[in-house]
Structures are given as C-alpha cells and as structure tokens.
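Much of our argument rests on the idea that a fold can be written as discrete symbols. This step matters because it turns folding into a mapping between discrete strings. The record that follows shows the chain in one-letter code together with its fold in token form.
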Amino acid sequence: MRSLKLGTLGKGTLGKGTLGKGTLGIGTLGIGTLGKGAALAIVAGLAGAGAGAAQEAPAQVVERTVKALPNRDTQIGIYLNVLPDCTSGPLPTIRLASAPAAGKVVVKNAKAKATNYKACLALEVPAYIAFYKSPPDFLGKDVLTIEVKYAGGRTEIQKITVEVNGPGAQQKI
C-alpha cells in the first residue's frame, strides 16, 4: 500500500491557524503524528464507493484512540474525497453524533496537498479537518462519535477516544 504524504497543511491553508510543520506519511484510515504529538487520522472518500446503489448501505464503524495535551487543539481527523481522475469530489457531511463529556470539537476548512497517492502523482484538494480541545485542568479519557456521510450514500461512524495526558505521556515522534 502506498502512503499519503501531506506536507503543506499548516502553511496558511487552514483557516486562521496552522497545523504544524514538516511532513506526514500515513495510509488510508491510518494514524500518524503531525507536529509535536498531534494525532491524525485520515479518511479518504473515493468516488464510486457506494455510488449507484439503490439502497443506502449500513454504516461502517471505525474506532480509534488519539493522544492529546490539555487545553491544546489536537487534530482528530481529516476528511476529503479524491476521485479516480485525481480531482476533488463533493466533501462529506460531518455530524457530531455524541459530544465529548469534557472537551469541544470543531471542524475547519483546509486544502490537502498530497504526492504519490494511488494513481495521483500530485494533487491538491479541499478537506475538512476536525480538532478536539480539552479544558486546561482535564486529564483522562474523553469519548466522542462523528458521523461522516459521503456522496453516494456511504456512511461511516467514527468512535474516537481522546486520551488527555500531561506533557510527559505523549506519543513519541
């Protein structure tokens, strides 16, 4: 499987903030790191997956864990749609099905640049990026559920457990 290399998110292309510095190599539905310990999961919607189906397929359930620091924006997902001709398809609809008990979740617009992704040597497509932020004094696990609906009827339920730890307990880079 080829990896997706995102290298320019964070150079002014994400809303008002930045995503981090450097590059990131990850696979579809994989988990990696970006910047200093910010966890990232990527979900790439491909055109034709479920397209033309007369009935809506049952939702796929994905569970993952992300590590975070207290009171810091932590990336918990990136959502895009790359068509077979390497252009962008319609972005998915994202709904917070169950909110985290302690923190907050926001979704921002971004542009994802990738090289060597499937048959695409280089591409730049719009994306949504989801962030989680805990209160300053919170330590522990916080669970949330995101529902992602792609064009063509495919639905994905993402159960995300965010482990908020002190500075010494982060994942290694």
Notes: The radius of gyration is 16 Å. The chain has no helices and eleven strands.
